[in-house]
Amino acid sequence: MLLRLLNRALVLVASVLVASVLVFGFMRVLPGDPARIALGINASEGAVTQLREQFGLERPVLVQYLDWMRGLLTLDPGVEFISRAAIGPQIADRLQVTLWLVAASMVLAVLVAVPVGTWMAVRHRHADGMVVSALSQVGVAVPAFLAGILLISVFAVRLGWFPSGGWVVPAADPLGFVRGLTLPAISLALVQAAVLARYVRSAVLDVLREDYLRTARAKGLRPLPALWRHGLRNASVPVVTVLGLQLATLFIGAVVIERVFVIPGLGSLLLDSVARRELLTVQAVVMVLVVVVLVINFIVDVLYLLIDPRLRAR
């Protein structure tokens, strides 16, 4: 088990290094001079050259990459070209907002998908199970931003139960924080819950056909207690894979939802930086998102070892 964890940790480090090279290289091949963009089209060549020297853009590419990686490791990715604001504190503040949104969405998705998917599997030959399965198919086809717009029009505009957007700091107003987080979290969770419920249904159906579950039924256990005691752990192995992928998808989907609900998260920072051509900020935010996805995949591998003893024995 320890050897496998060490192997996955090495793969994680190698993946981060490769991703950093790709992100850094992609930003360097984009058209446009960051110094020229920062100073405007009417700036003199002398001013542009001075700014390029100030930000180290005249140095060799390898030196720039190593300095950038050193800044990331020390949580100091530099300052923006135009505003001269520090990038690290902005990412730290916006990341907290996005983590709240993603965590709430993931919890809601799991709380809905696991019982609904299990019910669809146990009742797959009955009318109610077929109806719920059809509704989950509809949920998969609905984009998160469309769900957010519909929720705003109903629960914010017509009923006035929740705010249509904005963000409240949890420590300042806990109730306002919960009310402001509800609609965006539901928007992200609805689609993910529908997808996850389909995978839970498939995994539980496979477990229901196993001999050990038939033996448990033959001993007198009803379907749901037998599944709870003997089947859910085996069914959770493929579901954990999908759960990790969905968690990574939530970080990407949060970019759009934060724009719909005017939430100052990491996605809003990314889109605003793209609009302002702040390439250093875009580069840092993209790298943070990539690292988050890679770390999620690493955690999924660790959960495999905890859930399935066969992997530990192997």
Concise synopsis of the structure shown:
The chain is mainly alpha-helical and 314 residues long.
Produce the secondary structure layout:
Layout: H1 2-28, H2 34-39, H3 45-54, H4 61-73, H5 87-122, H6 127-141, H7 144-158, H8 174-208, H9 211-218, H10 223-260, H11 266-276, H12 279-307, H13 309-313
Distance N terminus to C terminus?
A: 8 Å
Rg for CA atoms? 24 Å
User: Which percent range fits the helix content?
Assistant: over 70%
Report the count of strand segments.
0
Could you tell me the strand content as a percent range? under 5%
Runs in which pLDDT lies below 50 for 5 or more consecutive residues are none
**What would you call the shape?**
globular
Give the SSE order as H and E letters.
HHHHHHHHHHHHH
Please identify the structural class as seen in this structure: mainly alpha
- How many helical stretches? 13
Please name the CATH architecture of the domain at 95-299: Orthogonal Bundle
Q: What is the makeup of the main sheet?
A: none
Under CATH, the topology of the domain at 95-299 is which? MetI-like fold
| CATH class categorisation of the domain at 95-299 | Mainly Alpha
Q: What's the CATH H-level superfamily name of the domain at 95-299? A: MetI-like
Average of the residue pLDDT scores: 76
